[in-house]
Amino acid sequence: MLALHVGFVDTDLARSLDVPKLAPAEVAALTLDALAAGEDEILGDEGTRLVRQGLSRERPSYIDPDPA
Q1: Mean residue pLDDT across the chain
Q2: Is 0.70 topped by the overall pTM?
Q3: From CA 24, how far away is CA 61, in angstroms rounded?
Q4: How far is residue 67's CA from residue 61's CA, in Å, rounded to a whole number?
């Protein structure tokens, strides 16, 4: 099983959004590389990595967004 986590992908659905987006070919390449490497999770972009990092803290960032 492989979990793919990405923010916005440059598709018709996100066409009107003025935000950084991954190219579909880049997402496909990340996925194929991860499958070949036997990985179980892909964090496709910086935003996704930051969210994952925040969720991994003892007190997740969505509960405590400004830790002391």
Answers
A1: 87
A2: yes
A3: 29
A4: 8
What would the mean pLDDT of 32-48 be, rounded to a whole number? Answer: 93
Nearest by Cα to 6 from 37, 58, 66, 52: 52
With 0-12 CB in 10 A as exposed, 13-18 as middle and 19+ as buried, what is 18? exposed
- The secondary structure of the chain in percent helix, strand, coil, rounded to multiples of 5, reads 40, 10, 45
Query: Is residue 58 scored above 60 in pLDDT?
Result: yes
Only one residue has tokens 């070949």, namely: 36
The Cβ of residue 49 has, within 10 Å, a number of other Cβ atoms equal to 13
AA letter at 9: V
